[in-house]
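Sample pair:
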Amino acid sequence: MPTFKVSEQKKFEGFASLVKGLAKSYELSNAIDTSNKELLLRLFAFSKGNVRQVSRLLRSLFIFCNINSKQPNNKLLADIVESLGYSEAINPFKQKITDVVIEENLTESDFLFSHRSEGNSIIAPEIARFRITKDLKIYSII
């Protein structure tokens, strides 16, 4: 399954739809606003559009809230992202929105099956980087 993209409106709408469906399945839809573009951009920054990553984060939020009888919110998301190993400096839920960097895969990583690989047979993905303005528009930084 290809990852979602923040730079293409239709693919970002697909990401928003995924988040809405996951929030509903994890019984979070009443507590977090899945139509909030800022939240969606922060979720995308965390997950890079990867289904597994956003699912893991929302599942962790659901489990934490159920175990601790708490209501989900952005602070809890920030704390959960930190508990997953993200320092405060790169945690999109602790940064000002204008400091958040979004990475998007332009190409997927690949494996080169050839004698020309010369020992380096893994091809890294091409990545585009974006920042977010105060009015929640994205712009390319690389």
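The mean pLDDT is 89.
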